[in-house]
Amino acid sequence: MTMNKAAIFHRPLSEYAFAISENEYAFRLRTAKDDLKYVKFGFADRATMTPKFTFDIREMERIFSNKYYDWYEITLKSDFERIAYYFELNDGTETVYYYGDCFSDEWDAERPDYFQFAFNLRVDRMEVPEWVKGAVVYNIFPDSFADGARHISGEPSETTYKGISCRSNLGGTIKGITENLDYIKGLGFNVVYLNPFFVAGCYHKYDLIDYFHVDPCRGTDEDFKEMVDKAHSMGMRVLIDGVFNHTSSEHEFFKDVLEKGKASQYFDCYYELGSDNPKFPGHHEMPQYTCFAYVAHMPKTNTANPFLKDYFCKVGKYWIEKFDVDGWRLDVANEVDDAFLRAFRDAVKSVKKEAIVLGEIWENASHYVNGHMMEGAMNYDFRRYLMQYIAKESIDTEEFAARIENMLLRYPRQAVYSQLNLLDSHDVSRFYSVCDENLDKMEQAVLLLLTFPGMPSIFYGDEQGLTGITEPEYRRPMIFEDKHPLFEIYKKLLALRNDNKAFGHGNFRTVVAKDGLYGFERNFGNESIRVFINGTDAAKIPDFKGDVILSKNLSGDELKSFGYAVIKNTK
User: Fold this and answer.
1) Is 331 a catalytic residue?
2) Which residues lie closer than 8 Å to 78 by C-beta, 6 or more apart?
3) Strand 157-161 relative to strand 164-168: parallel, antiparallel, unpaired?
């Protein structure tokens, strides 16, 4: 058979070709599965003042091989700031050279014909704060979590802010979070991520009225400062939720628009108002202006407006400068413009270089996670694939591995560690409910969450077995008193993550994905840890060697149904 050229793919200056540091690069190539005997990488200094390049040739490593494709990668250390390069492909019968998006029988070409890494610019390089590799995140929906030490009233309340109604559904407060930081820390978390707590009308606080103050139902600005200070004193970081895609219809900007129409100085702060004199819709009427979804009390902003862009960037800096938060998660990040995302991240970095910006992106986020707009995204695809494989059993092991590998290769290597991996959140059903409360399945899912590359994020109460399919259910009040069997499962798996640096810092390689047995390896320094889970009756672990540091349903080298094994080797 001839070489399958249609499957071969490379894109310069992307997740297929990126700088890691001043003198370190990574280059990747995709090919058809089992199509090639080898791939070699030729590179040269593209700035050399000679008629022809002098190439150095290195062999590439096949890092993944799944049911669809093989991926090859080379990590290149070189002092060249500018690189010209090509790929040499051999399938056992022919050798082909791939450069400039073309195939050739000859490697020798004109200088501009080769792939080019024009210059390793510092400002364009993807850089992620080192702390994210050790981050383990506890996600709190403030209304539902606590109003005191190990307590939540579960009672609704209502107050006003400048004459505007502000509501709480279950009574959670900032002080309640502060008084339970010891609980969170004791489980093994070192980052707290809070859904919105700013002044807003609804209990969820995504309809913001004032971006510069804590909602009176949640407490005071002083309460929040006390919470952040205490978290920092305990070695924990704090991430907060930014809502810039829309405001409340009660926000002063939008109220001015409703009052003055086109004459309002804030008219262009909203995306599409439908007329020169927009009106709030009547009962059962559709809004004439663009909103979040079609929710009339959440009019969509125009973040391209220079005044509004500057206003929101000031918000981003304010909560860092005054309260010392450690980063932002941006709501509906894929519906605001790219220029705003770049400006917001720059504003945040200008006051705290180690702060991070994450986005709510439900799909492939490679457009955004590029070192200019955000460091990472909420990894809903991780949840989706685990739900398909473990909870619903709708895909087999080979398909699961292929989807996971594709997901990991979407981003430059640095960005993989700053993805916010999750099983559930305030927007989706609890994973335990999706598993039909099958404890074995849930334990396997939590094991993968806590051993994969990326920042594991656990929604409040998952460790207490909270359930829920509908919104009121999965946002139910926190339970502290009765420890569910999942509590000890989370505690031991969190300890596994925190005690083994390879899980936060190591690379990732698939070991096996066949007939219900799935296994991968994490390597860091002289430490190598392999993780296996099994969904079949029984399966033999390949190349079984090392120290078993955690297991379930393991007998010798045989892993029984719903079993797992974590095996450590020191090189």
Assistant:
1) yes
2) 23, 25, 43
3) antiparallel
Q: Identical fold at 131-245+303-499 and 505-570? A: no
User: Which of 35, 331, 424, 443 is labelled catalytic?
Assistant: 331
Chain segment 403-428, per-residue pLDDT in tens: 999 999 999 999 999 999 999 999 99
pTM, entire model: 0.96
Q: To the nearest 10°, the Cα dihedral for 451, 395, 460, 168?
A: 150
Kindly list the distances between the CA atom of residue 482 and the CA atoms of 151, 461, 465, 494, in Å, as whole numbers in the listed order: 12, 11, 10, 20
Please answer whether residues 533 and 518 qualify as being in contact, where contact means their C-beta atoms are separated by less than 8 angstroms: yes
Query: CB of 210 within 8 A of CB of 218?
Result: no
Q: What is the DSSP string of 30-47?
A: EEETT--SEEEEEEEETT
Residue 342 pLDDT exceeds 80: yes
Q: Is the pLDDT of residue 1 over 80?
A: no
Confidence at 571, pLDDT banded by 50, 70, 90: confident
* Residue position matching structure tokens 């014909």: 113
As a CATH number, domain 505-570 is 2.60.40.1180
Q: What is the mean pLDDT of residues 545-571?
A: 95
pLDDT tens per residue, range 276-305:
999 999 988 999 999 999 999 999 999 999
**Third-level CATH fold of 131-245+303-499:** TIM Barrel (3.20.20)
14 forms beta bridges with 17
Q: Quick one: tokens of 41?
A: 């990488």
Fold topology of 5-124: Immunoglobulin-like (2.60.40)
Q: Are strands 547-555 and 558-570 parallel, antiparallel or unpaired?
A: antiparallel
Q: Is 547 a catalytic residue?
A: no
For residue 126, which phi and psi values (nearest 5 degrees)? -70, 120
Whether the Cβ atoms of residue 31 and residue 7 lie closer than 8 Å to each other = yes
Distance (Å, rounded) from C-alpha 520 to C-alpha 508?
Answer: 7
Give the Cα-Cα-Cα angle 80, 82, 84 (nearest 5 degrees): 105
Question: Would you state the torsion angle of the CA atoms of residues 400, 405, 407, 411, taken in this order, to the nearest 10 degrees?
Answer: 170
**CA separation for the pair 23, 412 (Å, rounded):** 16
Q: Give the type of residue at 291.
A: C
Query: Of 360, 375, 462, 521, which one is the catalytic site residue?
Result: 360
Residue spans of the domains in the chain: they are 5-124, 131-245+303-499, 505-570
CA atoms of 227 and 214, how far apart (whole Å): 12
Read off the pLDDT of residues 71-127 as tens digits, 9 standing for 90 and up. Answer: 999 999 999 999 999 999 999 999 999 999 999 999 888 999 999 999 999 999 999
CB-based burial, 201-210: b 16+ in 10 Å, e otherwise: bbbbbbbbbb
Task: Extract the tokens encoding 262.
Answer: 């086109």
